[in-house]
Each structure stands twice: as structure tokens, then as C-alpha cells.
Write a structure and sequence with these properties.
Methane Monooxygenase Hydroxylase, Chain G, domain 1; 2 helices; 65 residues; mainly alpha
Length: 65
């Protein structure tokens, strides 16, 4: 059971910052600069991928896997 809970904790820890970032970027503001960028969604996805990969690398260096 401890290994299962550790795995769920790692997954939740990875998704919590991404959820917060998407929540801020997903608000329907009228004057957000990235709405007019042609690569705004690509940049958002790259940032989210970077967050997830960085956290995976940090967790693997701490020997949590």
C-alpha cells in the first residue's frame, strides 16, 4: 500500500502546478497578450511539458521511483 500511495503522490505533485498554470491561463480575460500570439498554445504546452519533465527528473534523482 505504501508504494501505491507514493506513486499517487508523485502523480499528484506533477499535475498540481500544471493545473494551477492552466487555470490562470484559461481564464477568459479580454486583454491577455498570449491570446493574440500565433504560437500561444504551443508555448503553453511546451511550458507544461517542461514542468512535468523537470519534476520527473527531480524525482528520479531523489530516488523516488
Amino acid at each position: 500500500m505504501n508504494e501505491f500511495m507514493k506513486g499517487i503522490t508523485i502523480i499528484a505533485t506533477i499535475f498540481i502546478p500544471m493545473t494551477c498554470f492552466v487555470g490562470v491561463c484559461g481564464v477568459n480575460y479580454k486583454y491577455m497578450p498570449e491570446l493574440k500570439w500565433s504560437y500561444g498554445y504551443l508555448l503553453l504546452r511546451l511550458i507544461l511539458l517542461g514542468i512535468a519533465l523537470t519534476m520527473l527528473v527531480l524525482f528520479s534523482r531523489m530516488i523516488w521511483f
